Amino acid sequence: MKKQLNLRDAIMIVMGSMIGSGIFIVSSDMMRQLGSGYWLIAVWLITTIATIAAAICYGELSSMYPKAGGQYTYLTEIFGKLTGFLYGWSLFAVIQTGTIAAVAVAFGKFAAYVIPGLSDAPPLYQNGTFMITWMQIIAIAVIILLTYINTRGVQSGKLVQLVFTSSKIIALVLLIVGGLLLIKNNFFLENLSYGWDSFQNLDGSGWKGISGGVLMGGVAAAMVGSIFSSVAWENVTFVAGEIENPKRNVVVSMVVGTSLVMLLYLLCNYVYLSALSREEIAFASNDRVAIAAAEKLLGHTGTIIMAVLVMLSTFGCVNGIVLSGARVFQSMAKDGLFLKQAIPNNKHDVPGRSLWFQGIWASLLCLSGQYGNLLDMVSFVIVIFYMVTVVGVIYQRFKHPELERPYKTFFYPLPAIIYLVIGAVFCGLLIVFKPQYTWPGFILILLGLPIYYLVLKKTGRT
């Protein structure tokens, strides 16, 4: 593949893929789960530490295997085809495509906020509980448009990524700076006054003090939101084969990109805690906590500005995920583990058919209306594979100490231990206290087993 992406482009992919709709909405549910500014900040800090630790670890593998496919390639090289396939299967079934669908629908929902007629319009089609709305049609249009743009070549995709990621970063910075300057009635100290006491108010019936298992379950549920808002940074590894000097630039882009995004996230939450009371954060309309904060700061004009900001953010996020994901499915096809039609590049030197396979499935998830249910367990599935990949760093150190490592994990093995401990606690809490987030994820991964052996039987590969 041609090396058409420089370090700036790689950082834009990391940041653009991470910043979607989550930061603008998830803090609302997190506050309902824990009821304290201390706990809200603590969960975001834990997520920040885990995200940067994982990125530092991934850097070592990206320098050892600087080719397209990223995490799929690492898992295949270290643990074999079955592990790589299960990751790739999960990626295509829901992680990548489900995220594309969810973020695209978020674009549609905020477009409907700007144009109320879209929200008030009756469904275009309805049969029982199944319906097709204008928001879904807008989401599909965004997916098709961005898929088409990316089939026109890496230059087209990276231009969209640069413009929209730069726009939303600037807008987030303006929100933070403007927020700090325009806040008249500061609720920050009031929101911190609850200290480490924790409360829950899931249905608006009143705050109830929680501890023990209920608290642990609340922390796990809150982390589902913060982790989902902080994933997809590894998408840059999927396009490593098209990045200049990938042994260096992929590492730098992941560490710099994740650090900058998590700093922006922490500052955004400071603005939320300063501009809004506990109740206003927890029960913002449709969880649009960013719009509630904007309304406090700038009135109705602020809500429109924020809605447009979220549209910019989600559009750029979808583009980053669309651009990178198709490279994994192309790599799988070359290994005989995906449709062989996904192998060739088109005349623009990009995997056009793989892009369309991804775009069509993501569009169907939009129509199904089930992407939301699938995404309930995306954070769990992603963390499982993050942990397996981080274990791969340690495993390779023992099994193949002789392999060249242009970059070695900073302060090894501390970042790996930090991530594995946080990931294990998170997954363990979900398994015990929030099984509805976990058993669908296990089923999804296990469904890949019969598919894998059917593929092997069909292709005659071992």
Describe it for me?
The chain has helices at residues 7-18, 26-34, 37-64, 71-79, 81-114, 116-120, 134-151, 154-182, 188-192, 212-228, 235-238, 246-275, 278-282, 289-334, 352-368, 371-375, 378-399, 414-433, 439-459; strands at residues 125-127, 130-132, 198-200, 208-210. It is an all-alpha fold. A two-stranded antiparallel ribbon has the order 1-2. It has a two-stranded antiparallel sheet with strand order 3-4. Helix 4 (71-79) packs antiparallel against helix 5 (81-114) and helix 14 (289-334) packs across helix 15.
Secondary structure tally: strands: 4
Nearest-angstrom radius of gyration?
21 Å
Q: Which strand order spans the largest sheet, edge to edge or round the barrel?
A: 1-2
**Separate helix tally:** 19
Range of helix content? over 70%
| Unreliable segments of 5+ consecutive residues | none
What percentage of the residues does DSSP assign to strands (E)?
under 5%
SSE topology string: HHHHHHEEHHHEEHHHHHHHHHH
User: What class would the helix/strand composition place it in?
Assistant: mainly alpha
Report how far the terminal alpha carbons are from each other. Answer: 27 Å
Coarse shape = globular
Largest sheet: 2 strands, antiparallel
Oligomer: single chain
Q: For the residues shown, what is the average pLDDT?
A: 88
